[in-house]
Amino acid sequence: MAHQQLSSLSDVSSSKEHDQEDAIDELIASLPISKGLVRPVHSLYQNFWCPTPLLPNLIAFQRHFEAKDKDILLVSHPKSGTTWPKALVFSVVNRSRFGISNTPLLSSNPHEVVPFIEHKPWPGPDGMTEPRLLATHIPYPALPESVRRSDCPIIYICRNPLDTVVSSWHFHLQVARSEDRPEWSLEEHFETFCREEIMFRPFWDHITGYWKESLERPRKVLFLKYEDLKEDIVGQLKKVAEFVGLPFTEEEEEGGVIEEIAKMCSLKTLQGLEVNKSGKLLNTILEKRSFFRKGVVGDWVDHVAPSMVDRVNSIMQEKISPLGLRFKTR
Ligand code: PAP
Questions:
Q1: What sign does the CA torsion over 176, 159, 120, 113 have?
Q2: Residue 266 Cα: closest atom of ligand 1
Q3: pLDDT digits (tens, 9 = 90+) for 242-262
Q4: Whether 137 is catalytic
Q5: Which residue of the set 137, 172, 189, 206 is catalytic?
Q6: Which among 3, 27, 37, 75 has most CB atoms closer than 10 A?
Q7: How far is 315 from 170, CA to CA, in rounded Å?
Q8: 120 Cβ partners below 8 Å, 6+ apart?
């Protein structure tokens, strides 16, 4: 009898799940779509363009994720150098569990150690060791309610938009080659970027959403720039450690722990590890090595035409300068 009741209960809950899945499929099918070069299909969902195949995971995350105050969320716009802070934040947060000789970064790619929530079928973060360290490209207004309401810290990383375009072009060309899709020029890529109908865009709304929140709630959102990490990695690591409530002790500082973390997470070290030289990330078509390229600030100078620079500068003048946010693009 009890067994019968249980199985009818589980029938009810699985039929509810089916109904919910059907409702999500219907919702996705009703969204405006854009087809283009970079990824075959994007859908306009809650005012941002999302690669359509990621939407079921993303919506499940929005609906079911219950943030804990101890969670840490790492957010970025794609190709802002996210791989680097994933390794850095993981090392800072877990430094009492792992040293440089046994860090999981030696045997796993940073994207495996700190997963993107939208790449993981739900239940995403179940069974993760606390504090749970998660990443996403979702814009601020679309984060799950529980993330915005709770005290869980958010670390946002952004990068000079011109370097981001160049990095993104190289990355997506590699993906296209691996799928035997035709290639496209940087000029075409730039135009696609300006049209904004791809990859968690509009870009400027993404950045300013987190920037404004970091000004209003500095204990909730830490806004980092890739260029600042390059310029002063030790200072930035101290900032991150304080922000997540785990400041480096004097002993650690004197013992060179910060420099050790910086070296372990450097492009040179991570790129040189066997684990990052071949193979694909779980559940994706993405080559692990494609996340490591040059990592140079100002790489755009060798690629981008003056007309593109002028166009980006005038957009920045309008959209971000009034908010006190600047990138060096001259
Ligand atoms: P994602 O948004 O798909 O996660 P993301 O890591 O943001 O990718 O972008 C990769 C960029 O970060 C590459 O920049 P580039 O194309 O200009 O070279 C990559 O080289 C850079 N990168 C990856 N790991 C590091 C690191 N440890 N230090 C510095 N830069 C890094």
A1: positive
A2: 27
A3: 999 999 999 999 999 999 999
A4: yes
A5: 137
A6: 75
A7: 23
A8: 57, 283
